[in-house]
């Protein structure tokens, strides 16, 4: 008997546990001081009414013999995939086929599971700083990882380097943790590199709904040629507050063929073998996100978060602090004040102002002197945070 020893190569993640410990210690020493948490990457506004109504209705159906549903399609119900297809056509001018869309219980699962269809011999290219799931899931498989440097010099938007050869490329735009968003020309460069090097781009669009600037792409498939080299992951988590409800989707275009094998076929086989689909009730809730009333209400929530993001963005601009994000993203990533390193800055903000954020070092070595704040708290708390940052 042998275990997968690659797991022993994973770095323990102490980021959020260390933050929690430090905050608890501070609270114990300063019971009367207010703490404002802008570290969380979780949404705080509840599900919108059209979604709740759809969830209730679907639950009712499950209790009636005539409308009860057992196993559904592993790839997701047609009604939800049609709604996603229409969303792509209407908002991104991207035409998809129903069989290119796979519904899942969230982007994280699919981002991890997709690696089943790739050889462990592939080299992966991952940005530093990064959403840790990309790195850890490859360590688990023992794949070779090369890091692309996201730095102040490239505004945290690394571009292809022809001298670096990779088979699988991770791009996340709008980015977690940096909030940076690739423009059309930059994504065109990546698609060109992937096509030339016969690499596959894994594009994480979990934050696409926060892009307000119409000139910015919200899907890799808005770029010509991307259907031949990319897979896209998306989620209802941040779009519609589904972090606890769980639903996402992955687009694997039919035109994506590697060595004569369509990846869509492999992914379908993987999903039909290892996955039994997302609950009918949740899929009805996700469908309601795309209804006219659902869209109006989720947009209102997104605007609430973006007002917070804009507050933080303006405050840092006023203070002349270098930062990315905050404009088309709920994340604001900025240089720590006075040359501090990110954990020292964490302690400084906590002990001086009761303000909690996330040290950039937790996302990679390039985050060493950077800090992440999120827009997912209330407007009142964000205002308080801003007044403290501006002091
Ligand atoms: N991708 C990125 C970049 C994220 O930040 C997150 C969640 O924080 C996810 C994917 C996971 O989304 P889900 O809740 O759909 O699993």
Radius of gyration: 21 Å
Count of alpha and pi helical runs: 12
Can you tell me the CATH class of the largest domain? Alpha Beta
Number of domains: 2
- The total count of strands amounts to 15
Structural class: alpha/beta
- Largest beta sheet: strand ordering: 2-8-7-6-5-3-4
What small-molecule ligands were found? Answer: pyridoxal-5'-phosphate
What name goes with the CATH superfamily of the largest domain? Type I PLP-dependent aspartate aminotransferase-like (Major domain)
Instruction: Detail the poorly predicted runs.
Output: none
As a percent range, the share of strand residues is 15-25%
Could you estimate the helical fraction of the residues in percent? 25-40%
CATH architecture verdict of the largest domain: 3-Layer(aba) Sandwich
User: Could you tell me how far the N terminus lies from the C terminus, measured between alpha carbons in angstroms?
Assistant: 60 Å
CATH level 3 topology of the largest domain: Aspartate Aminotransferase, domain 2
Order of helix and strand elements from N to C terminus:
HEHHEHEHEEHEEHEEEHHHEEHEEEH
Largest sheet: 7 strands, mixed
Kindly state the mean pLDDT as a whole number?
97
Shape, principal axes of CA atoms = globular
């Amino acid at each position: 008997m042998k275990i997968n020893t690659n797991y022993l190569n994973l770095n323990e993640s102490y980021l959020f546990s260390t933050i929690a410990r430090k905050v608890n210690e501070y609270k114990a020493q300063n019971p009367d001081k207010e703490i404002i948490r802008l570290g969380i990457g979780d949404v705080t506004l509840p599900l919108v009414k059209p979604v709740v109504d759809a969830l209730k209705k679907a639950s009712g159906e499950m209790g009636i013999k005539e409308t009860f549903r057992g196993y559904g399609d592993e790839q997701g119900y047609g009604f939800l995939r049609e709604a996603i297809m229409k969303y792509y056509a209407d908002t991104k001018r991207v035409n998809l086929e129903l069989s290119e869309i796979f519904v899942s219980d969230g982007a994280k699962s699919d981002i991890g599971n997709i690696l089943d269809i790739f050889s462990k011999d592939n080299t992966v290219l991952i940005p530093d700083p990064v959403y840790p799931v990309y790195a850890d899931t490859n360590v688990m498989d023992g794949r070779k990882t090369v890091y692309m440097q996201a730095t102040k010099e490239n505004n945290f938007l690394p571009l292809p380097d022809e001298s670096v050869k990779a088979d699988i490329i991770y791009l996340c735009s709008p980015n977690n943790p940096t909030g940076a968003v690739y423009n059309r020309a930059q994504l065109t460069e990546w698609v060109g590199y992937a096509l030339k090097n016969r690499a596959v781009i894994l594009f994480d669009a979990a934050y696409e709904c926060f892009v307000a600037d119409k000139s910015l792409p919200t899907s890799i498939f808005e770029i010509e040629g991307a259907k031949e080299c990319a897979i896209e992951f998306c989620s209802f988590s941040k779009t519609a507050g589904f972090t606890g409800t769980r639903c996402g989707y992955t687009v694997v275009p039919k035109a994506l063929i590697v060595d004569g094998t369509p990846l869509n076929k492999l992914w379908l086989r993987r999903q039909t073998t290892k996955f039994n689909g997302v609950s009918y009730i949740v899929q009805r809730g996700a469908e309601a996100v795309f209804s006219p009333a659902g869209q109006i209400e989720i947009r209102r929530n997104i605007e609430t978060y973006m007002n917070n993001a804009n507050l933080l963005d303006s405050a840092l601009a006023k203070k002349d602090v270098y930062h990315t994000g905050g404009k088309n993203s709920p994340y604001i990533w900025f240089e720590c004040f006075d040359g501090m390193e990110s954990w020292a800055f964490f302690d400084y903000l906590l002990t001086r102002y009761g303000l909690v954020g996330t040290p950039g070092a937790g996302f990679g070595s390039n985050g060493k002197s950077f800090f992440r704040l999120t827009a997912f708290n209330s407007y009142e708390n964000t205002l308080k945070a801003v007044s403290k940052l501006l002091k």
